[in-house]
């Protein structure tokens, strides 16, 4: 089991290895991981873990879950720690590094990937407060789970 910093969100309508597909949102403290997660949850996604995520490499792929001590808790800035229903585990299909508005993101980026917990996953960069951020996460999940493709 590998513990990583980030927020993991599952998408129940997209399955991978018999469980919901998920993304790991990474970035500096205060960049907007939990805020983007809250908006995705409000749109039908499920919390896996906020702030810390347990990763386990299995024959089916990389499974994400919450450490027991923080299971079901999402920090909502200005509100507090909110207890929410969670996906007990999810298949991690992509990593999204959240960046600030001052970071330029290529319009048509080359595919990138990252080594994490003994495997390699696709990696994207995203500005979390763009009005299209939630839709872009949905597209990333669809592409990473093989439900859509990108023309390069």
What would you note in describing this structure?
The strands form two sheets. Strands 1, 2, 3, 4, 5, 6, 9, 10 and 11 form a nine-stranded mixed beta sheet that branches. The longest helix is centred in the last third of the chain and has 12 residues, at 133-144. The model has no long low-confidence stretch (mean pLDDT 93). The protein is 14% helix and 45% strand. It has one domain (2-144): P-loop containing nucleotide triphosphate hydrolases (Rossmann fold). It has 152 residues and is mainly β.
> N-to-C SSE series?
EEEHEEEEEEEEH
Q: Can you tell me the number of structural domains?
A: 1
CATH topology: Rossmann fold
Total beta-strand segments: 11
Q: How far apart lie the N and C ends?
A: 35 Å
Strand content: 35-45%
Proportion in helices: 10-25%
Low-confidence stretches: none
Number of helices: 2
- What shape does the CA trace take? globular
CATH superfamily: P-loop containing nucleotide triphosphate hydrolases
Features:
2 helices; about 150 residues; Rossmann fold; mainly beta; nine-stranded mixed β-sheet
Question: What's this entry about, in short?
Answer:
By secondary structure, the chain is mainly beta. The chain has a single domain (2-144), classed as P-loop containing nucleotide triphosphate hydrolases (Rossmann fold, 3-Layer(aba) Sandwich).
Could you give the topology of this structure?
Blueprint (H helix, E strand, L loop, with lengths): L1 E4 L1 E10 L2 E8 L6 H10 L3 E4 L2 E7 L2 E5 L7 E4 L3 E4 L6 E9 L13 E5 L2 E8 L6 H12 L8
């Amino acid at each position: 089991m590998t513990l990583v910093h980030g927020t993991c969100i599952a998408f129940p309508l997209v399955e991978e290895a018999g469980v919901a597909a998920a993304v790991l949102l990474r970035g500096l403290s205060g960049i907007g991981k939990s805020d983007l997660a809250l908006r995705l949850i409000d749109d039908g996604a499920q919390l896996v873990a906020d702030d810390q995520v347990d990763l386990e490499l299995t024959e089916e792929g990389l499974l994400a879950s919450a450490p027991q001590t923080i299971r079901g808790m999402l920090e909502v800035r200005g509100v507090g720690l909110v207890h929410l229903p969670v996906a007990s585990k999810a298949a991690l299909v992509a990593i999204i590094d959240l960046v600030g508005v001052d970071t330029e993101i290529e319009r048509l980026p080359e595919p990138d990937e990252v080594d994490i917990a003994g495997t390699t996953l696709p990696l994207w960069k995203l500005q979390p407060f763009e009005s299209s951020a939630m839709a872009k996460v949905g597209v990333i999940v669809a592409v990473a789970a093989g439900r859509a493709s990108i023309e390069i």
